[in-house]
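To: structure subgroup
Subject: Chain for Friday's discussion

All,

I'm putting the inputs and outputs inline so they're searchable in the archive.
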Amino acid sequence: MKERLSAKEGIKYLPHFPTVLIGTGKGKKANLITAAMVHVFSIEPEMIGTGISPKRHSFELLDEYEEFTVNVPDSSMLEELKGCGSSSGRDIDKFERFELTKEKSDVIEVPGVKEFPLILECNLEKKVKTGDHHWFVGKVVNAKKAENFERSETILYWGGEFRKPGDLIE
């Protein structure tokens, strides 16, 4: 069971530049893309963005549906994260291939990933072209987190390496 949070509380669990699965599309078009370009763009209102290349299938879905979920895994979900990042939703159903369960969103129509402990539901507010990626910036309209989720269990990606956040220093 996930605890319902305010959007402001929800984004506090999102570390800077985490590696997540972005959920896009609806129904049979539902898709997941692994993204390490994720950032909080505004605290008030609560807005986060993800950088996606126009070459990706999910880019088309984000354009079409204008909603997305940010699904934050814990470190036990690394293989699913890597698998979704090395395959295309044009060719396979990533939920099925990687044995992930669609979790119905409370506010938007795009599903989240039930196995992931933090789900942020977003309505697309703006798209900004920045070189080889476009930033899809969304307003967080709902947030859900598993009771036992710890921010220290998220996955970060730096220079080709997957890491967990380090020790608290202050």
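Points worth raising on Friday:
The longest strand covers residues 133-146.
The chain has four helices and twelve strands.

D.
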